[in-house]
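Duplicate of earlier report; Glycosyltransferase input re-posted below.
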Amino acid sequence: MKILYIPSGYGQIYQSFDLSILQSINQLNHQVRSIPFSEEETLKNVVHSFQPDIALTLTGFNMPYTMIEWIKKQGVKLVVWMTEDPYYIDRSLKLIHDYDYVFTIDTAALKVYKEAGHKEVYYLPLGTDPDIYHPTALQKQYQSDICLVGSPYPDRMKIIQYLLEKTNYSIQVVGRQWEKKLIKAKRSSRLSIHSHWIPPSIAKHYFNSAAINLNTHRPFHLKQNKNIRAIINQSINNRTFDIASSGAFQLIEYKPDLHLHFTEGEEMVSFKSSEDLLKKVKYYMSHLEERKKISERARKKVLSNDTFIHRINKMMNIIN
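Output:
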């Protein structure tokens, strides 16, 4: 298949997604060209010369409607992968009908899109890239008992404060604005704050150098969201697959769709409350071999089912 890949226009983690997707398309022996939507004339020239079967983009939020119309007039099928669902579903509902195929990372959003009348919408979570996320040796500068990589959402800050109060473990948080958000907690000598965005190549070292990685999800009711319907996310985030691919142990906030990818207690351990988390943190901190076995099984599962190659292959099979 000939695929025109149009980057979302976002930076940081999206640049990593772009690279992993392009590499996966190549490894699956499809032909691919990638042109930013901002380079309109170049993009049009590529469409004329390359004659793609489909044009694929992520989120679709930045794609000009004039470009969408033009591409469709060339007989090219438009495909969008909604990778921020359901947090910006107010925006995505306005544009799904511009695309021939819609893929979403969340089953709650999938239901909404089907109810909105789209005939070609499918659940497809983001994958992981084993070339980036793989086991590494423990490194002292990244080491911690408990680590949380991600944005300082209110529920995450409460969890960190709770664990600082209830345990004596060293805790590390990594991500933009943690320093600003955790003014009180930063007085603890057991808390390390790295208040900046880190690329995936560094994130894997934090994952592998922590005894336990905390993995919680973005709240559906966060005020920055565009989710007036209050659609509650049902699916697990891509960090789940990244941590697992790294061969690291994680405690993940429970989501109903967790069972679609992992067996609870065998390949993944979830928690449903702060008290449940505390109980499991204490247990697994003192059971190293169990952590290792669960992490090994999770990595094996991900490598067999949840890489970007698996996702792109499934997408292309559906379109075909």
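The chain has a mean pLDDT of 96.

Merging into the original ticket.
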